[in-house]
Design goal:
Blueprint: E1 3-10, E2 31-37, E3 49-50, H1 57-66, H2 74-81, E4 86-87, E5 95-99, E6 104-105, E7 116-123, H3 161-170, H4 176-184, E8 204-207, E9 214-217, H5 222-225, E10 232-233, E11 240-241, H6 249-255
Amino acid sequence: MIHIVSQLEDEDAVDDLGHVVQAVATDTALIFTSLLALQDIQPNMGPTHVWPGTNTVEHHATLWGSHITGKLSVEGADEAFGVAHRKMTLRQGDLVLYDSRTMHCGGANMSDQRRSVFCVSTMGPGIRPDGTTWTMLGSLRGRLRLSDFPLSKDAVAAPTASSVADAGNALPLPSADVKTKLSKEAGIQEAEQRGVPPLEEWQAAVQCSFCGKWRPCGADEAPRLMQADNGFACKLVGFSCNQEQRYSNEEIDAIF
């Protein structure tokens, strides 16, 4: 099952008009987001910058391993990720679909307009997103699923083998130092084996943005675990991340 949250989102705060480019960052939870442009997004409106293919463990390790704050400039990100950013200039009605873990940042809006988008996000069960992601009306939470929005057969057709191969070849490669770091940590990549807790204890779960492992928690505990200051140490990359890798995908699948 896929949960859906939606919101009408101003990509600029009231005081952001003419603001400088934001620092490059990434969301931590596995969320797929679609953005519908409500007006033409021109280059001088500070369109969102994205770095294609940077939703991987290696690229997240590059961001958090090389920069204590987990923030990069646009120029620094181009160099660190080995791929040039793209500006999402859009026409009214254009739809952008992306993995929210992809590196991105807001551009400098030098126009006299605010840029607004309609945002719809889909996420796996048990993920409690933080910030403005969780904005659906309380009366609708837990009721809407992806199956409530059926697509045509053509729209859901599986990609061909050639298209998958082409997409894989187009992904930017992680830097050599990141590969070396991950190789050195290979001996501690396996998460500690633990028994699967009973279902009633799984009120929520958070995911390590680096290694993809899950950690169960209480619903009231999840927001705190999503904060960097209260994060856990990820054994895979050797430094602090927002969520700890306590449980394997197999253990999660046994519950959900």
